[in-house]
Every structure is written in C-alpha cells, then in structure tokens.
Design brief:
The complex is a heterodimer of chains A (580) and B (181). Chain A is an alpha/beta fold and 580 residues long. Chain A folds into three domains: 179 residues, Rossmann fold, CATH 3.40.50; 169 residues, TPP-binding domain (Rossmann fold); 172 residues, Thiamin diphosphate (ThDP)-binding fold, Pyr/PP domains (Rossmann fold, 3-Layer(aba) Sandwich), CATH 3.40.50. Chain A has 24 helices and 20 strands. In chain A, α14 links the parallel β12 and β13. Chain B folds into two domains: 80 residues, ACT domain (Alpha-Beta Plaits), CATH 3.30.70; 71 residues, 2-Layer Sandwich (Alpha-Beta Plaits). Chain B is elongated, with a radius of gyration of 19 Å. Chain B contains four helices and ten strands. The N terminus and C terminus of chain B are likely disordered. In chain B, 24% of the residues lie in helices and 39% in strands. Chain B is an alpha+beta fold and 181 residues long. In chain B, the strands form two sheets. A five-stranded antiparallel sheet of chain B has the order 2-3-1-4-10, with helices on one face. Classes of the chains: A alpha/beta (580), B alpha+beta (181).
C-alpha cells in the first residue's frame, strides 16, 4: 500500500499507541497536520513550543507513557531545546517530531532551517534526521523504543518536508527488526545475581541503614517493591525531590526529602548512616552537598539502570546495574530467604531511636503570621494540601515555592508530584500541569507556581481554557524572584540585585480572566480557605489564585551551596546541637 | 613531544557507520571535558560499521567514566581498550621541509635512515612521508624541524590488538556485560 510520508508518520504514531500530541504547526511540518485531521489522535494546540514540551513531560510523569510533541523547523525546534534538556535531566520519556526544510535545501540556510539534530544532540538520548519516507516507520519505532527503555529520556525525529510529501510502501517493523537495527543498544535490566546477594548481606549487617530512593523508583514502576523492602527490613526511606510520592509520606518509615532544602532528619540520617541503599538515585550535588563531607561513614549500594551513574560521583561498594523493580524484587526475595533460614538482621534499635529523636526535635515548621501580618506561603500550601482531594496531582515550578511544595505536601501515592528537578526550569509548572491533567483527567491537578515562574509560560492557560483542561494554579506571589532573593539576603549581605519584580504588575486576576480562567486574589489568611474551596469546586475552566505572600519568608532548612551537609542551617528557633 | 606517557589510553571503538556518529563521539568528549589526544576514523571490515581509534588523555578523568559515557551513545557497538604493549600501532606523517639544494642530500639521507619516502622535490623544499610507530614519527619530526618545517600533517594513530599467542585483548570492564541504558 503506497501512502505519503505524512500519512506514514501519523499512522506510526497511532501504532505506537499515541493518544495525544502536543504541538504547533508551521511551514515544514504542514504536510503532517493534514492526515492528523483524520486521525483519532488528540492534538493540543499550544501557544509556544516550549509549552508543548513541558506538557508532554507532565503527561509522561503521571502516565508513564511517552509524551509526544510535534512542531515545525527552525525556531520551533530551538524552542524545544529547554523541555528536551529538562526531560533528559529527569529521565522523562518523550518523543519529539520536528519538521525540517526539504532534503535538497538542507545546508543552504533556507527559511526556518536550523541544524536541529546538531542542536539537540546533547539534550536528547538519541536523535535522527530521516532522509526518505521509506525510513519513517523504523525511525519512529526506534525513537519510542529508545525513549521508553533503559534509562528513559527524550528522543527526536527530524523530518524534512519532502520526506512528508514523498510516498512510501507502508510497513511496520517487528520488535526484533527494531532491536536488530540498533546493535549498540542493549540496556541491562536484570541485576547481577552475585551483586544482589552482596547487597543483601550488607543490608542484613548494617546498624545504621538508610534507603536513598530516587526518581528511578518512579521511572522503573518500583514503588511497590520499595515498600516491601523497607517493611521487610524495617529501614527508613528518604525520597529525593524526584522521588516524592515513591514512598508514602504518612508511612512511619518515611523520612521525606533530603538535600539542600531537605528536612533535618532526612539530611542527618544520610550523613550519619553506615549504609546508603541507593535505589535509582544519582548522588546529585543538591543531595550530597560538599562531596568529600557527604555520608563519610557510609558504605554504598547503588542500583541504577545506567551503568555510567555507577562511580560517577560516589564510588559504590556494591554496584548493581539494572531495572529498579527487578533488582528490588530480587533483593526482597534474597533477604526473605536469608531471614527464613534463620539469619538475624543487625540490631538497628539504637539508630531508630536516634532518628525518632531527630524527627521529634526537628519537624518542618515555620513561624505562623501574627494576626494582620503578611500571609505565609507555607500556610497557603498546608491549606491547599488539606482542602484538596488526597490524590491530587501537584505540579510545581522552580524556586522557593517548589521547595515548600515538596516539604509541606503529603504525598501518599506515586505519580502525584511533577516538577523540574535536574534542569530547574522556571516556567515548568503551568504547561506541565496541563499535560498532567490531559494524562489524568480524573484527578485534580494543582500547579503551585511563583510569580516569576508564572510570567514565563502563563500563556499556556489560554491553551488550557480553549481545550477545556481545567487545571488550577496557585501563585505564591511575593513580588520577588524569591530563591535568588533568599541567597542575596543570606550570602550577599542583603544586597538585592535585580530580584524585585513588581507588587502590582501584572494584575494576575485580570490576566487570568483575559485568558479565560477564573482569577482570585488572596491577601489575608482568612481568605485562603474560601478561595481554595471555590477553586476546587470549579471544573469547567482553569482557575488562578494569586496568593500575596510574605516576601521575607525563606526556605529552611538549608545547606549552603558548596557546604557540607553537616553545616545545615535551621530556622532560628530550632537548636542544632541536638543533631550531633 | 612524546605520545607514550602512561596517562594516555588507546580506545578502539566500533560504531555504526551512520551520519553524525563522529559528531556524537567528539561532542561527548567536549561536553564532558575529556581530552582527545588523537582520533582516527574509517570504515571497518563490515562497511556498515566504522572503527574509531581514540587516544585519550585520562589524567583528569578516569577511563572508566569515559567508556561508560561512550557506551551510552546508541551507535557505539563495542569498545576495546588496547594495551600498548600488546597491540600494533601505526601512524602516517607527511611533511614539507624547507631545504636548499646543497642541504637536500642530508634530508634524503635522514629519510632513508628512517625508511621513509620522498614524495616530491622542489628547488627549495621536499615533501616526505613516513609511517610507523608513533614514537618513531616523533623522532623523525624533531630531526626534520631542524631544517625548517613548512607544513606537517600526522594522521593520529590507528591500532589493532596483536595477533599473537600472548596478545591480550582486554575488553573494557562492564559489570553486567551489557549496554548503557
């Protein structure tokens, strides 16, 4: 059957199970938008290509399926660079289709031509320029295969216009043909049996163990085995920024988030541990602080699907390359067998009582505002948490509001937290929330944003309003680039340089209304609950709440950049001596 | 200039012969701040694949991390670290030397001693070639420099494991014998 390259492209996306494409048409990709009209695939027309990328990420975060983006050449492709890099850093599966000038025009600096595969080479797991229509189905299959297997990530397929208009004989490569076409790509999924036994022995012998759970738990669908492992061994779990929700916050063994703005117990338990059971985490600098001072007495078990993570930052005592789910299940089986054979786990009771002492002494807390004083951002988050459905999906931008969201929310199930971890992309939350809502229309989706972040990508709320995607946005508006302000206050002698935005511009309520959303402004604590209740009751359009919060509020605890985790700064009313 | 410092390693990298592969490899080295000392690439025995011989400076970065990152490139099929003691290495040097007719005999003698070739002779210059072990080329280059080098081009080394009883082909350690995810 002869069809056009454009028809083959859309058909290939359908065959891969694509239900939604986020995109924006233009010159070179135009031919692909015609067969899209006849396809069951839903297309979400964005207002800026970066928005399409973050929507695809949000969709992938909550569904586990790859987010699909289709945009044109040149500026559209360069606008995709940020979300591609974001997805690459956080190992989010995404397939991006870009238009390209005709094969004959490539290299001539044609209108809207850019070297898309060159530009995106270092921000994709793999990319490919397709030169004939006949190659399209295989290129699409490879892109999905690579994006969704091994360490997941974004892939890009660059399709020249004449490849879309050319004809081809339709075929659909088999799984085996796809694998054979990629002789250099064989992800390791099964962990090494002997290493798993070694790890089990270390776990059984450890007196101060901590499970250090990272985003790989979520990408590897391993939340259930993680819970089994923690309960079987009675070991506490810290969940990194990328792993919030991978282990329930209300579980007695959950210590919450470690790292630069982690809570004192999570940070200190890692510091003083004798065994870090690292599962799908990568010793990011925001976790370790100054590396030579990080967890100095700990042995390290490191489970990661990416061999290059082993020993990249911290040399593991037991490296296990493999899929988190498989390896943790094997670990559970091995430890269970050891226990059944009468082997005793080392006594961890002293360690556990130490941890519970820290937890009691150092809860995450803030000073509530005096009556009539400015609204506290943490209070807004607590109210939002308590007044929204338990299974709400929370999406955040990047900055203070992101840290408070991670700290004060109560994540009880996986895939309810979406944020930009590795790249730290301001403007992530509004489009990512839209993508999350498209993926999980049954859930309430709240974006928590800063006023700085919001102004970077707010235009996508027009997309949400037009497409009837009723997301909710809580702006924690302190009129500042808050995290930068915090650093300038603490480390630059309060010399505030270019961080003050504006208290009255823009008018977020009017802006929200102009975009087809409901806009609500909240200035005082007593207005918080009614505003949230109203927002939660609206289900036919997006809602934006402009919370006017205290600009002086800072995120604590904090490990200053470049400092050791032992130099954790606590709020002034907590006494650090107890941590020693 | 010596190419035999112990901080250099030779990697023989088998890649799929596809557009952009070299850019991926060199881009990876640039992006992660690894130093390439020399790089030579040409189609392998199967035209679907190319073999890249990379001499890397591993003073700053452990070889292990470099090979692991290289493995993550989808088109990289196999990486072999070649032990210089158990591999054959060759490099080609082309040089144009400024030399007056009176001195030309000395240069020709030098070329003969090194078993090189005279490729072209002009009134004031000769172009010569020499292939061999890179250290030999270093010596030759130093001696030619005394006459005045107009232009010099070296290919960078290519290498294969020795085909001998005691040859050791050391596969790069890869704990699970698998590929990068």
């Amino acid at each position: 059957m002869k069809i056009t390259g454009a028809q083959a492209l859309i058909k290939a996306l359908e065959m891969e199970g694509t239900e939604v494409v986020f995109g924006l048409p233009g010159g070179c990709i135009l031919p692909a938008y015609d067969p899209l009209l006849d396809s069951p695939i839903r297309h979400i027309l964005v207002r800026h290509e970066q928005g399409a990328g973050h929507m695809a990420e949000g969709y992938a975060h909550v569904t586990g399926r790859p987010g699909v983006v289709m945009v044109t050449s040149g500026p559209a492709a360069t606008n995709m660079v940020t979300p591609l890099m974001d997805a690459y850093m956080d190992s989010i599966p995404m397939v991006c289709i870009t238009g390209q000038v005709s094969t004959k025009a490539i290299g001539t600096d044609a209108f809207q031509e850019c070297d898309t595969v060159g530009i995106t080479r270092s921000c994709t797991k793999h990319n490919e320029l397709v030169m004939t229509a006949q190659d399209l189905p295989m290129a699409i299959r490879q892109a999905f295969h690579i994006a969704t297997t091994g360490r997941q990530g974004p892939t890009l397929v660059d399709v020249p216009k004449d490849v879309l208009t050319g004809t081809m004989e339709w075929y659909w490569p088999t799984d085996q043909e796809v694998i054979d076409s990629l002789p250099g790509y064989r992800p390791t999924t099964k962990g090494h049996g002997r290493m798993i036994k070694e790890a089990a022995k270390l776990i059984m012998a450890s007196e101060r163990p901590v499970i250090y759970a990272g985003g790989g738990i979520l990408r590897g669908r391993a939340a259930e085995p993680l819970r089994e492992l923690a309960e079987l061994t009675d070991i506490h779990v810290v969940t990194t920024l990328m792993a919030r929700g991978a282990f329930p916050d209300d579980h007695p063994l959950c210590l919450g988030m470690p790292g630069m703005h982690g809570n004192a117990t999570a940070v200190t338990s890692m510091q003083k541990s004798d065994l870090l059971i690292t599962l799908g985490a990568r010793f990011d600098d925001r976790i370790t602080g100054r590396l030579d001072g990080f967890a100095p007495e700990a042995k390290v078990i490191h489970v990661d699907i990416d061999p290059a993570e082993q020993g990249k930052v911290r040399r593991p005592d037991v490296p296990i390359v493999g899929d988190c789910k498989y390896v943790i299940e094997e670990l559970v089986r091995t430890i269970r067998t050891m226990k059944e054979a009468g082997e005793e786990q080392a006594d961890t009771s002293a360690w556990k009582s130490k941890i519970s002492g820290w937890r009691e002494q150092f809860p995450l807390t803030y000073e509530a505002s005096e009556p009539g004083a400015a609204l506290k951002p943490q209070f807004c988050l607590e109210q939002l948490r308590d007044l929204s459905p338990k299974d709400t999906i929370l999406v955040s931008g990047v900055g203070q509001h992101q840290m408070w969201s991670s700290q004060y929310w109560n994540f009880t199930e996986p895939y309810t937290w979406v944020n930009s971890g590795g790249l730290g992309t301001m403007g992530f939350s509004v489009p990512a929330a839209i993508g999350a809502k498209v993926g999980r229309p049954d859930r309430t989706v709240w974006a928590v944003d800063g006023d700085g972040c919001f102004q970077m990508t707010a235009q996508e709320l027009v997309t949400a309003a037009v497409e009837r995607i009723p997301v909710k946005v809580a702006i924690l508006n302190n009129s500042y680039l808050g995290m930068v302000r915090q650093w300038q206050e603490m480390f630059y002698e309060e010399r505030y340089s270019e961080v003050y935005l504006s208290p009255e511009l823009p008018d977020f309520v009017k802006w929200a209304e102009a975009m087809g959303c409901v806009g609500i402004r909240v200035d005082s604590p007593e207005e918080v609950q009614p505003a949230i209740d109203k927002a939660n009751s609206i289900d036919d359009r997006p809602v934006v709440i402009d919370f006017r919060v205290d600009a002086r509020e800072k995120v604590f605890p904090m490990v200053p950049a470049g400092a050791s985790n032992d130099e954790l700064i606590l709020p002034h009313f907590q006494n650090k001596d107890f941590l020693k | 200039m010596s190419t035999d410092l112990p901080t250099y390693h030779i990697l023989s990298v088998l890649v799929q012969n596809r557009p952009g592969v070299l850019a991926r490899v060199s881009g990876l080295f640039a992006r992660r701040d690894y130093n390439i000392y020399s790089l030579a690439v040409a189609p392998a025995e199967d035209p679907g694949f190319s073999r890249i011989t990379i001499v890397v400076d591993v003073e700053s970065t452990p070889l292990e991390q470099i090979t692991k990152q290289l493995f993550k490139l989808i088109e990289v099929v196999k990486i072999t670290e070649l032990d210089p003691r158990n591999s054959v290495e060759r490099e080609l040097l082309l040089a144009t030397v400024r030399v007056s007719p009176e001195m030309r005999g000395q240069v020709i003698e030098l070329v003969n001693v090194f078993e090189g070739k005279i490729l072209a002779v002009g009134v004031e210059a000769v172009t010569v070639s020499l292939d061999g072990y890179p250290a030999k080329l270093d010596d030759f280059e130093d001696l030619l420099a005394g006459y005045g080098l107009v232009e010099l081009q070296r290919t960078g080394r290519v290498a294969l494991p020795k085909f001998a009883r005691d040859a050791r082909l050391r596969a790069v350690p890869n704990p699970n014998n698998g590929k990068a995810g």
